[in-house]
Amino acid sequence: MARIVMKFGGTSVANLERIRNVAQRIKSEVDAGHQVAVVVSAMTGVTDQLVGYVREAAELYDAREYDAVVATGEQVTSGLLAIVLQSMGIPARSWLGWQLAIKTDGAHGAARIENIDTADMITQMIAGSVAVMAGFQGLGPDSRITTLGRGGSDTSAVALAAALKADRCDIYTDVDGIYTTDPRIVSRARKLEKITYEEMLELASVGAKVLQTRSVEVAMKEKVRVQVLSSFKHKPGTMVVDEDEIMEKELIAGVAYSRNEAKITIMNVPDHPGVSAAIFGPLSEANINVDMIVQNVAHDGKTTDLTFTLTAADLPRALDVLEKAKPLIEYETLTHDANVAKISVVGVGMRSHAGVALTMFKTLAEKSINIQVISTSEIKISVLIAAEYTELAVRALHTAYGLDAVAA
Ligand code: ASP
Ligand code: MG
């Protein structure tokens, strides 16, 4: 007998027929003798609609009321699933964030889970009841409802699995696992049997959207065994595990891309200590995250150029901040380009193998794709290129790193 957490995303609970399908999946685990806790998302599109209502209601809204509104989607699906389970003769009850409680910090709209009190839930699970928990929500320090950021039900599930000391956390979604790259771009993308937490974390943060980044952080910290699998197909998915569990490590686990990037170049800035602080200070005060940065050496030893990237959505605000800070920074010109994409290759094998970056640069050169900015971490190399070459670059790199599936 095991204790498992099963999480179902929005497409898996999109209507009652699908909720019945989900209930069948739960029934199989219950019949196998397992203790089951379930975490659900809102039905597909519902959270978007709720966010839309809030924005329509007022341009500047109270973030606490935003959370009160957008958390409701999960309340509906948790109750409906409990009803369907009961109708099948399976004892079940729903749990909302405040009922457990799932204590979070007070960052409304992007709260972090601090503690989950699972005592009552465990008592009922031991007595044979399926616990159905509403994902995405918690209870803030001021006793107000909080939400965990878009995609946050993944984090609810992983945090619950950690709190319950569950043997496994199965994340059911509309894809059947983690792929070496986006199968919509590369038809020969392969499903990975296993991937390390670190790789998954890097992939999630550079654009692979299967799991919320925060959920992977929690899984890695708490050592929760996560499986990503399809709620529509009956076959194993991808296990996200510790590095020692993977015997045959691949050099590269995956190629990811993000088109939501923008680039800003500041030209002819006086090259003296404090200039980077003068530029990035005001940006950080405005809550704008900067990603890749390059600074060039000055020709004349007096001025320099600086290029950095950020999320495209932040571009207008960043330009505004930098225009205002012009007298302070004393730059000459400011240019920007939102027509860029970031392509990343990720793999723990990079740590022990030289030449991984070179393969990337050569491959892109062969396709005449110009690299605008480069950044690296221990297990990731990212490049910024013109957005129009995104698909070409991803395909070429997927082949170059030997990731293409062999034709059956
Ligand atoms: N329903 C929330 C969202 O759409 C949370 C989730 O689905 O994970 O972001
Ligand atoms: Mg999701």
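The CA atoms of residues 29 and 36 lie 7 Å apart.
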